[in-house]
Specification:
Layout (H helix, E strand, L loop, with lengths): L1 H16 L10 E8 L7 E7 L4 E9 L3 H18 L6 H16 L4 E9 L4 E7 L4 E5 L4 E5 L2 E2 L13 E4 L5 E5 L15 H11 L5 H14 L11 E8 L1
Parallel strand pairs: 5-8
Antiparallel strand pairs: 1-11, 2-3, 3-4, 4-5, 5-9, 6-7, 6-10, 10-11
Helix pairs in contact: 2-3
Length: 243
Protein backbone atom coordinates (compact mmCIF):
# COMPACT_ATOMS: atom_id res chain seq x y z
CA UNK A 1 0.00 0.00 0.00
CA UNK A 2 2.88 2.34 0.76
CA UNK A 3 4.36 1.72 -2.70
CA UNK A 4 0.97 2.28 -4.35
CA UNK A 5 0.56 5.54 -2.44
CA UNK A 6 4.07 6.68 -3.44
CA UNK A 7 3.41 5.90 -7.10
CA UNK A 8 0.11 7.77 -7.04
CA UNK A 9 1.86 10.76 -5.50
CA UNK A 10 4.56 10.54 -8.19
CA UNK A 11 1.84 10.37 -10.85
CA UNK A 12 0.18 13.50 -9.53
CA UNK A 13 3.51 15.32 -9.43
CA UNK A 14 4.34 14.28 -12.98
CA UNK A 15 1.00 15.43 -14.36
CA UNK A 16 1.57 18.75 -12.59
CA UNK A 17 4.66 19.41 -14.75
CA UNK A 18 2.62 19.08 -17.93
CA UNK A 19 0.96 22.24 -19.28
CA UNK A 20 -2.09 23.25 -17.25
CA UNK A 21 -3.83 24.49 -20.38
CA UNK A 22 -3.40 24.54 -24.12
CA UNK A 23 -2.20 27.89 -25.53
CA UNK A 24 -4.96 30.00 -27.05
CA UNK A 25 -3.73 31.09 -30.47
CA UNK A 26 -6.43 32.79 -32.62
CA UNK A 27 -5.50 31.07 -35.91
CA UNK A 28 -4.63 27.67 -34.44
CA UNK A 29 -6.50 24.89 -32.72
CA UNK A 30 -4.33 22.54 -30.60
CA UNK A 31 -5.41 19.22 -29.10
CA UNK A 32 -3.33 16.81 -27.01
CA UNK A 33 -3.47 13.21 -25.79
CA UNK A 34 -1.17 11.79 -23.11
CA UNK A 35 -1.38 8.21 -21.81
CA UNK A 36 1.43 6.86 -19.60
CA UNK A 37 2.23 3.16 -19.75
CA UNK A 38 2.33 2.94 -15.95
CA UNK A 39 1.81 5.26 -13.00
CA UNK A 40 4.59 7.52 -14.24
CA UNK A 41 6.00 8.06 -17.72
CA UNK A 42 9.02 9.10 -19.73
CA UNK A 43 7.02 11.12 -22.27
CA UNK A 44 6.85 14.88 -21.89
CA UNK A 45 5.43 17.82 -23.80
CA UNK A 46 5.42 21.57 -23.27
CA UNK A 47 4.57 24.87 -24.93
CA UNK A 48 6.42 28.18 -25.14
CA UNK A 49 3.86 30.85 -26.00
CA UNK A 50 5.50 34.14 -26.91
CA UNK A 51 2.39 36.15 -27.81
CA UNK A 52 -1.06 35.76 -29.41
CA UNK A 53 0.41 34.47 -32.67
CA UNK A 54 3.64 32.64 -31.89
CA UNK A 55 4.11 29.38 -30.00
CA UNK A 56 6.74 26.67 -29.64
CA UNK A 57 5.79 23.02 -29.08
CA UNK A 58 8.16 20.42 -27.61
CA UNK A 59 7.57 16.67 -27.47
CA UNK A 60 10.17 14.43 -25.80
CA UNK A 61 10.50 10.72 -25.09
CA UNK A 62 12.94 9.35 -22.51
CA UNK A 63 14.14 5.85 -23.40
CA UNK A 64 12.81 3.38 -20.86
CA UNK A 65 9.79 3.49 -18.59
CA UNK A 66 8.68 4.01 -15.01
CA UNK A 67 10.28 6.07 -12.28
CA UNK A 68 13.79 6.53 -13.82
CA UNK A 69 12.32 7.85 -17.07
CA UNK A 70 9.86 10.05 -15.17
CA UNK A 71 12.66 11.64 -13.17
CA UNK A 72 14.46 12.57 -16.37
CA UNK A 73 11.28 13.96 -17.93
CA UNK A 74 10.97 16.28 -14.93
CA UNK A 75 14.50 17.50 -15.71
CA UNK A 76 13.33 18.46 -19.19
CA UNK A 77 10.66 20.68 -17.64
CA UNK A 78 13.31 22.58 -15.67
CA UNK A 79 15.61 22.83 -18.70
CA UNK A 80 12.80 24.30 -20.81
CA UNK A 81 12.83 27.38 -18.61
CA UNK A 82 16.39 28.07 -19.76
CA UNK A 83 15.67 27.92 -23.51
CA UNK A 84 12.56 30.10 -23.79
CA UNK A 85 14.68 32.99 -25.10
CA UNK A 86 15.54 30.91 -28.19
CA UNK A 87 11.95 29.79 -28.84
CA UNK A 88 11.91 30.97 -32.47
CA UNK A 89 15.04 28.93 -33.31
CA UNK A 90 14.32 25.17 -33.13
CA UNK A 91 17.97 24.24 -33.69
CA UNK A 92 19.13 26.42 -30.78
CA UNK A 93 16.37 25.09 -28.51
CA UNK A 94 17.50 21.51 -29.10
CA UNK A 95 21.20 22.38 -28.87
CA UNK A 96 20.69 24.06 -25.50
CA UNK A 97 18.49 21.29 -24.13
CA UNK A 98 21.09 18.73 -25.17
CA UNK A 99 23.88 20.79 -23.59
CA UNK A 100 21.97 21.08 -20.30
CA UNK A 101 20.63 17.53 -20.10
CA UNK A 102 23.34 15.29 -21.57
CA UNK A 103 25.82 15.56 -18.65
CA UNK A 104 23.06 14.44 -16.27
CA UNK A 105 21.66 11.50 -18.26
CA UNK A 106 24.31 8.91 -17.30
CA UNK A 107 23.73 6.67 -20.30
CA UNK A 108 20.04 7.40 -20.79
CA UNK A 109 18.84 8.79 -24.11
CA UNK A 110 16.07 11.23 -25.03
CA UNK A 111 14.42 11.81 -28.40
CA UNK A 112 12.73 15.16 -28.94
CA UNK A 113 10.96 17.25 -31.56
CA UNK A 114 10.41 20.99 -31.49
CA UNK A 115 8.00 22.96 -33.67
CA UNK A 116 7.81 26.76 -33.83
CA UNK A 117 4.69 28.30 -35.39
CA UNK A 118 3.99 31.90 -36.33
CA UNK A 119 0.30 31.91 -37.22
CA UNK A 120 0.33 35.59 -38.20
CA UNK A 121 3.02 35.01 -40.85
CA UNK A 122 1.67 31.56 -41.78
CA UNK A 123 4.96 29.76 -41.26
CA UNK A 124 6.55 27.09 -39.10
CA UNK A 125 10.06 25.83 -38.31
CA UNK A 126 10.83 22.28 -37.22
CA UNK A 127 13.79 20.32 -35.89
CA UNK A 128 14.21 17.02 -34.05
CA UNK A 129 16.64 14.86 -32.11
CA UNK A 130 16.25 11.22 -33.10
CA UNK A 131 12.45 11.54 -33.03
CA UNK A 132 9.67 10.16 -35.27
CA UNK A 133 8.91 12.56 -38.14
CA UNK A 134 6.39 15.38 -37.99
CA UNK A 135 3.27 14.56 -40.03
CA UNK A 136 2.09 17.45 -42.21
CA UNK A 137 -1.35 17.19 -43.82
CA UNK A 138 -1.68 19.70 -46.66
CA UNK A 139 -5.40 20.23 -47.07
CA UNK A 140 -5.19 21.97 -50.46
CA UNK A 141 -3.77 18.88 -52.16
CA UNK A 142 -5.05 16.26 -49.74
CA UNK A 143 -1.50 14.99 -49.28
CA UNK A 144 0.40 13.82 -46.22
CA UNK A 145 4.11 14.63 -45.90
CA UNK A 146 6.56 13.21 -43.39
CA UNK A 147 8.89 15.99 -42.25
CA UNK A 148 12.20 14.51 -41.09
CA UNK A 149 14.88 16.83 -39.76
CA UNK A 150 16.84 14.84 -37.20
CA UNK A 151 20.03 15.26 -35.27
CA UNK A 152 21.38 12.97 -32.53
CA UNK A 153 19.32 12.08 -29.49
CA UNK A 154 20.16 13.86 -26.27
CA UNK A 155 22.77 11.92 -24.32
CA UNK A 156 24.90 10.81 -27.29
CA UNK A 157 27.05 13.93 -27.70
CA UNK A 158 26.89 17.56 -26.65
CA UNK A 159 28.23 18.62 -30.07
CA UNK A 160 25.29 17.49 -32.20
CA UNK A 161 23.74 19.59 -34.96
CA UNK A 162 20.02 19.95 -35.49
CA UNK A 163 18.94 20.91 -39.03
CA UNK A 164 15.75 22.95 -39.43
CA UNK A 165 12.92 22.58 -41.94
CA UNK A 166 10.89 25.68 -42.84
CA UNK A 167 7.20 25.18 -43.67
CA UNK A 168 4.67 27.50 -45.32
CA UNK A 169 1.26 26.94 -43.71
CA UNK A 170 -2.15 27.34 -45.32
CA UNK A 171 -5.62 27.42 -43.72
CA UNK A 172 -6.95 23.93 -42.88
CA UNK A 173 -3.47 22.38 -42.86
CA UNK A 174 -2.69 20.03 -39.98
CA UNK A 175 0.49 19.13 -38.07
CA UNK A 176 0.89 16.06 -35.88
CA UNK A 177 3.64 15.39 -33.32
CA UNK A 178 3.82 12.05 -31.51
CA UNK A 179 6.07 9.67 -29.63
CA UNK A 180 7.00 6.16 -30.77
CA UNK A 181 4.51 4.62 -28.35
CA UNK A 182 1.96 5.38 -31.07
CA UNK A 183 3.61 3.34 -33.84
CA UNK A 184 5.47 0.55 -32.01
CA UNK A 185 2.69 -1.49 -30.28
CA UNK A 186 2.72 -5.09 -31.50
CA UNK A 187 -0.12 -7.52 -31.94
CA UNK A 188 0.02 -11.08 -30.61
CA UNK A 189 1.50 -12.13 -33.96
CA UNK A 190 4.27 -9.54 -33.67
CA UNK A 191 2.90 -7.07 -36.23
CA UNK A 192 3.59 -3.44 -35.36
CA UNK A 193 0.82 -0.83 -35.53
CA UNK A 194 3.31 1.11 -37.63
CA UNK A 195 3.57 4.39 -39.46
CA UNK A 196 1.33 3.19 -42.29
CA UNK A 197 -1.75 2.79 -40.09
CA UNK A 198 -1.14 6.14 -38.44
CA UNK A 199 -0.84 7.74 -41.90
CA UNK A 200 -4.13 6.14 -42.93
CA UNK A 201 -5.92 7.60 -39.93
CA UNK A 202 -4.50 11.07 -40.50
CA UNK A 203 -5.61 11.02 -44.15
CA UNK A 204 -9.05 9.63 -43.31
CA UNK A 205 -9.65 12.43 -40.79
CA UNK A 206 -8.27 15.28 -42.90
CA UNK A 207 -11.54 17.20 -42.76
CA UNK A 208 -12.51 16.20 -39.20
CA UNK A 209 -11.62 18.09 -35.98
CA UNK A 210 -8.25 17.31 -34.46
CA UNK A 211 -9.83 15.91 -31.30
CA UNK A 212 -11.69 13.33 -33.39
CA UNK A 213 -8.42 12.27 -35.00
CA UNK A 214 -6.76 11.80 -31.60
CA UNK A 215 -9.74 9.82 -30.28
CA UNK A 216 -9.69 7.61 -33.36
CA UNK A 217 -5.95 6.93 -33.08
CA UNK A 218 -6.26 6.02 -29.39
CA UNK A 219 -9.27 3.81 -30.07
CA UNK A 220 -7.39 1.91 -32.78
CA UNK A 221 -4.34 1.54 -30.55
CA UNK A 222 -6.41 0.19 -27.67
CA UNK A 223 -8.06 -2.39 -29.91
CA UNK A 224 -4.95 -3.22 -31.95
CA UNK A 225 -3.76 -6.34 -30.07
CA UNK A 226 -6.22 -9.16 -30.93
CA UNK A 227 -6.00 -10.40 -27.35
CA UNK A 228 -5.93 -8.48 -24.05
CA UNK A 229 -2.58 -6.83 -23.60
CA UNK A 230 -1.18 -4.05 -21.47
CA UNK A 231 -0.05 -0.79 -23.04
CA UNK A 232 3.48 -1.29 -24.30
CA UNK A 233 4.80 2.27 -24.15
CA UNK A 234 3.88 5.81 -23.15
CA UNK A 235 1.72 7.61 -25.73
CA UNK A 236 1.77 11.31 -26.56
CA UNK A 237 -0.02 12.98 -29.48
CA UNK A 238 -0.34 16.67 -30.34
CA UNK A 239 -2.39 17.83 -33.31
CA UNK A 240 -2.27 21.44 -34.50
CA UNK A 241 -4.86 22.69 -36.98
CA UNK A 242 -4.34 25.90 -38.93
CA UNK A 243 -7.61 27.87 -39.11
Amino acid sequence: MAIEHALETARQIQFSILPEKIPAIPNLRIATAYEPMSAVAGDFYDFIQMDDHRVGVLVADVCGHGVPAALISSMIKVAMQSVSGFAADPSRVLLELNRILSPELRGQLISAAYLWIDSEQGCARYSAAGHPPLLYWRNSGGALERIESNGLRFGVSTNGEYPVRDLALQPRDRLLLYTDGVIEPESASGESFGEHKLDELVCAHGSRPGRELLDSVLSRLHSWPPRPASQQDDITLIVIDVL
